[in-house]
Design a protein that fits this description.
Blueprint lengths: L1 E5 L10 E4 L2 H16 L6 H10 L1 E3 L1
Antiparallel strand pairs: 1-2, 1-3
Length: 59
């Protein structure tokens, strides 16, 4: 199984894409990117929900 995320999938003009074995292991990568690239140090609940919904799970 593989979990993937791309910023563009939540409407951001950003080419960031990442993947991990699980959704849970993907979230820290996304949080680190949000902090470094977008200046978001604390992800609000509404954005976290949007990101979570955009994560794709592939077999």
């Amino acid at each position: 199984m593989k979990a993937t995320f791309a910023c563009k999938d939540i409407g951001m003009k950003c080419n960031f894409e990442t993947e991990a074995a699980t959704k849970e292991s993907l979230m820290p990568k996304i949080a680190e990117h949000a902090k470094k690239a977008h200046g978001i140090s604390t992800i609000p609940d509404d954005l976290r929900s949007k990101v979570s919904a955009a994560i794709k799970i592939k077999p």
